[in-house]
Amino acid sequence: MKVLFLSAAIAAAALTGCATLDHRTGTEVTQQQLDTLKTGTSRQSDVIKMIGHPSQKTMHKGREVWTYDFTLIPAMPWQANKQEAAVFEFDKDGILLEAYKSGGRPGKSGNPMLDAAGM
Asked: What digits encode the pLDDT tens for the residues 9-21?
């Protein structure tokens, strides 16, 4: 019984430790953060206060567009990669017009190595 418990504890520790080996880049914006910001009311300063400065700012059709890219590559190969961008569009006065996420999981599994191998 002690051996079984010890084995389970070691396995749990090994799997938990792998989470620290995940590769993350960019800024993850949660759905809760998106829901907190209100179109027509929230300002650029509110977004900066909540999330920080964006990795990219562009102008498109008179709107200032801020993009926060985020990529997660899990250490465990059976877990899907996550690649997305949170996009915020502002009018000329810095008022939020739209906030949404784009992107998703590429390929069938979300792991490009597994997809390339046909797995």
From this structure: 555 555 555 557 8
Q: Please name each of the domains of the chain with its CATH number.
A: 22-116 (3.30.1450)
Q: What is the mean pLDDT of residues 81-106?
A: 89
Q: What are phi and psi of 80, to 5 degrees?
A: -75, 145
102 neighbors 87 (Cβ within 8 angstroms): yes
| Sequence-distant (≥ 6) Cβ neighbours of residue 48 within 8 angstroms | none
- pTM of the shown model: 0.70
Question: Residue 64: which of 29, 95, 102 has the closest Cα?
Answer: 95
Instruction: Give the mean pLDDT of 81-91.
Output: 93
Burial of 12 (0-12, 13-18, 19+ CB in 10 A): exposed
Q: Dihedrals φ, ψ of 63, to 5°?
A: -110, 140
